[in-house]
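Section 3.1 - Work completed
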Amino acid sequence: MVRTLFILWLLMLSVLPFSWSRAQEAFKNSITVKAFGLSVHLKESPYPEIFPNRLDSKGYTTINYGGIVGYDRFVVRNDLSVRMEQGLYADCAESMAGFTHIGFRGKIFRKGRHSVNGGIGPTLVYRRDWNRLEGYVDNGYFNRRGDWQYKFYWYGGEFEYNYQLSEQNDLSLTLIPGIPELVSFGIGFRRRY
């Protein structure tokens, strides 16, 4: 698992110096910092009592406290980039959790100050093992190693809406589809340079 993630990082880093001639006219990099936040479960949780920050009695909507930091290297103008992203947060059960993601981002739509990007790529999701929580019954979805549970996805991604505040700065909203379990949201800023 660790070896696979390391190889993926090396492959993606080898793409970073690459730029097409038209990319010289545009921004080459961006940094994104977001507060991570709100999770909406797509089905009723069998354990809503272990979600201390739930907004409803059945645990459909919960608050998560944490952040996401991302780096984009544009490879085709401002339309296609390679993104590396790291998230750390308190999950629905207020356990330490996070994700590490590497993938491609492409512009889906742009009009005036508004743009929507979509991305996909390998993602490692991890959390402190919930088996320590009273009332939790492990369904085997996550792999276990020591005090941690993890899941590797080849297809993890996100949708990102950006509102251009200035030539280099955007207000950025993120939707992370964790299908079939939940959808998560974040808000922050993106700076292109």
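Second construct:
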Amino acid sequence: MFSAQKELDLRARMAALGIREEDIAEKFIRASGPGGQKVNKTSSAVYLLHKPSGIEVKCARERSQALNRFLARRLLCERLDARQRGAASEKQQAIERIRRRKRQKSRRQKLRMVADKRHRAGIKALRGAPAAD
């Protein structure tokens, strides 16, 4: 569930991105997938169209229409932000961070890592009890 504070934060983010409620076309449609009779009988999925940018968003993650409305607006903000900022968007930065982490290390990095491990092992070896004479 979402709180009043989250709702206020979303409104502030929408205002910062220049998204007005008048620019959004909202439709409620029937969701599909898991959820049983509740999902099949009620129009709980939310479809948003941001008219100025042409971005379309459909959200049917939850069984609650109110929660899906909130999540759809949040997703719309993320997509518009990614389009406006491009490579600087948070999502793109997270993807790049993961890509850098998975990238293979160079030969020099591997050698330095092994040298550091050997150095650390030498330090740990000195921790042992003194040898009996």
